[in-house]
Amino acid sequence: MIDNPSALPEMHDIVTPPAASWWPLAPGWYLLAVLVVTLLALTLVLIVRRHRRRRIRNAALKQLQQQPPASLPAVTLLLKQAMLGYFPATRVAALSGSDWWQFLVQQLPRRRRAEATAWLTPVQQQNFQDPASGSDAYQDAVDSYRRFARYWLRSALPPQKGAGHD
Predict the structure, then answer these.
(1) Alpha-carbon distances of 92 from 61, 77, 84, 125, 160, rounded to whole Å
(2) What is the distance between the alpha carbons of residues 59 and 13, in angstroms, rounded to a whole number?
(3) What is the pLDDT of residues 130-166, one digit of tens each?
(4) Domain coordinates in residue numbering, the chain
């Protein structure tokens, strides 16, 4: 209560402070912004690397789908061309026969190797037959090898670090 009624005109209105400004930001916000930008940049770099590593594999899969090879050597050539993007040329060029089949199987995950070997059995049996013979067994082997090649390209390329080293 006011004891002196004459003091009322001398009183001033209550002055409220200005609203707090959101700028400049607290240091924690700057750290958060740097962290977010760093994570976005890292994610972008990883996505670009992954895309580049899979480009050769995807091209081989596309070629296998659009122009299916008609013979066993043609499928082998397609696989070797794809492998040259991931393995040294000296290692790929030297592979043939049982070493070739073994190398292909060794690049697959362990749990899939038995299935891959089953796909390759008719291929190995028909490997040295004349493609011009047109036999059903040879055509079945080519189809099996194509299925194997599609599976192998998806599963084994790009190679994982330490893959195939049991």
Answers:
(1) 19, 11, 7, 22, 17
(2) 78
(3) 766 667 888 888 888 898 999 999 988 888 765 544 4
(4) 55-156
